[in-house]
TrEMBL record:
The lineage of its organism: Bacteria, Bacillati, Bacillota, Bacilli, Bacillales. Residues 5-124 form the CMP/dCMP-type deaminase domain. This is tRNA-specific adenosine deaminase. Its cofactor is Zn(2+). GO terms for molecular function: tRNA-specific adenosine-34 deaminase activity. PROSITE patterns: CYT_DCMP_DEAMINASES_1, CYT_DCMP_DEAMINASES_2. The keyword Hydrolase applies. It comes from Evansella alkalicola. Zn(2+) binds at H56, C86, C89.
């Protein structure tokens, strides 16, 4: 029960990051890395701003956590992210030795932590990661749904004006 309360708290923090991404026109995905019950790094999508395919929320948060701990090993850390990580991010999660990942919404088109495949629990890798899904799923999912709905509406208006 304690984990669930903590998971909700930290997922709300990841949601704040996601909202920040949405406000600057980025896909609203946010992440935080927690060590010893404290947030040590935050991240949100910056692919459009930076024009970098690797500028995912998870990658930014993992990089920040490595800097904060001055280590590439995040063995006692948990990553909270609003959307199920993709293959690239799942690979970074395994490589950084995160202990646990908690995500909100599943990703039917790219999720690699249980939906399309589960790279975090692949026994052939030298590290596996505990995974919890569905924390604040409705909030995480509706944030993305509303963002893409608004984006489609803006594009339609733009095309109608042309």
């Amino acid at each position: 029960m304690k984990w669930l309360e903590e998971d909700r708290y930290f997922m709300r923090e990841a949601l704040k990051e996601a909202m920040g991404a949405g406000q600057i026109g980025e896909v609203p995905i946010g992440a935080v890395v927690v060590s010893e019950n404290k947030i040590i790094a935050r991240g949100h999508n910056l692919r459009e701003r930076d024009q970098q395919s690797i500028a995912h929320a998870e990658m930014i948060a993992i990089s920040g956590a490595c800097n904060a701990l001055e280590s590439w090993r995040l063995e006692n850390c948990t990553l909270y992210v609003t959307l199920e990580p993709c293959a690239m991010c799942a690979g970074a999660i395994v490589q950084s030795r995160l202990k646990r990942v908690v995500y909100g919404a599943s990703d039917p088109k790219g999720g690699c932590c249980g939906t399309l495949m589960n790279l975090l629990d692949e026994p052939r890798f030298n590290h596996t990661v505990l995974t919890t899904s569905g924390i604040l799923e409705e909030e995480c999912s509706s944030l993305l749904t509303n963002f893409f709905k608004e984006l489609r509406t803006k594009r339609k208006r733009k095309n109608d004006d042309s």
